[in-house]
Amino acid sequence: MPKKIKLIYVFTLFIFLLLLSACSSPSNKESLSEASTKEIVMNIGVQGKTGILPYAREKKYFEKAFEKVGVKIKWNEFTSGPPHFEALASGRIDFGVVGGTPVIAGQSGNVDFKAIAVTSDGKKGNSIIVPKGSAIKKLADLKDKKIGVAKGSSAYNFLYMALDRASLSDHDIEIIQLQPDEARPALDNGSIDAWSIWEPYATTAVFQTGAKVLVTGEDLNINAPSFLIARTKFTEEHPDLTVQFLKIYEQVRQHFDENIEEVSKEISETQKVEVKIIQSVLDNSEAILSSTTEEFAKAHQEQADFLYSVGGIEKQLKTSKIIENKFVDQALREIKEE
C-alpha cells in the first residue's frame, strides 16, 4: 500500500459544515390522501443538465404528478454531491441523486438520511481525462502532475482508488480543488495536467476539445454505485409521497431508455450542445433504478472501507445502516402491477 492519503482535513471540514447546518423536524406518518389536505413542499436537489432529474425538471414531470395531491415542487441546484448533504442536513432538500463518496461522508457526519435506491453502478460515471496532446499515457505518468477534482465528490474517491492501483499517493501528485465549472477552463488552458470528473463533463470535454480519457471506473473494474438519497424525516412523515417520487423517477428513466434519440435531441436543443455529445453522455451514464442489491451493498461498503484505510474518514462505517429498500421495492412493484 502507498502512504496514507491525507483526506482527513477535507472530510472533517465537510462534516463540520454538515453538523453546523443540521436541524430537526417533527415526525408523524401520513398517507397520500392525508397529505393532500394541506400544501406540502417537496424540495429536490439537482445537478448537471443531462440526467433524469434535470430532464424531469425541464418537462415538469413531478409538478404535473404532485399538483393533484397538493404538493408543490421546489428545485435546488448544486454543482456536486457534497452540497446536497449540507442542504439535506438543514432540511432544505428532501431528495437528490449523488455518488457514493458524498453518501459515505454524510453517514460519517451523522446526517439523518437514507439511501433509498441505486441510480447507477458507477463504472462509467467517473474518469480521469487529460488534454489533447498530453504526454500522460498511463496512471503512473500522473506522478508530479497537477490534477483537478471536486473534493468530497465521487470523482475524488475515484481518483484516489486509481492512484492506489498505480501505487501512487497524494505525495506524488498535486491536487487542485476545483468544481466542474472551474476545472474545465483550467484543463483547457493548461493550469492542470489532468481532471478527475464525472459525466457529462468528461464526454463534453472529449468532444469539444479533443481531451483524452486516461482511465474509467470500467477500466479499473471499480463498481461505485450512485444513490437516490432522501431526508429521513420526510420519508417518515410522507411514505406514500416517497413511493410516488420513485415511481415518477422510474417513469422518466424508462422514457429515457426507450426514446434515447428523441431525448438526446430535446436536451441538445435546450442546452445548445451537439446531439452526438448528449447521446454519448447518456450511453455512458447508464441510468437505472434499483434496490441496493448485495452486489451494490458490497461495492459501497468496500468504498467506505477504502476511505477509512487511507484516512479519508475517521471511523469505520457499517454502510447498511443508511440503506432503505422498502420504498423502491414498493414503487417498482406498483409500476409492474399497473
TrEMBL record:
InterPro entries assigned to the protein according to its UniProt record, in alphabetical order: ABC_SsuA_sub-bd, Solute-binding_3/MltF_N
Domain Solute-binding protein family 3/N-terminal per the UniProt entry, residue ranges: 41-259
Keywords, ordered alphabetically: Lipoprotein, Palmitate
Family according to the record: Belongs to the bacterial solute-binding protein SsuA/TauA family.
Protein's name according to its UniProt entry: Aliphatic sulfonate ABC transporter substrate-binding protein
NCBIfam families (UniProt xref): SsuA_fam
One Pfam family recorded for the sequence: NMT1_2
Organism: Metabacillus rhizosphaerae
Signal peptide: none
Keyword check for rRNA-binding: no
Taxonomic lineage: Bacteria, Bacillati, Bacillota, Bacilli, Bacillales
PANTHER family: ALIPHATIC SULFONATES-BINDING PROTEIN-RELATED
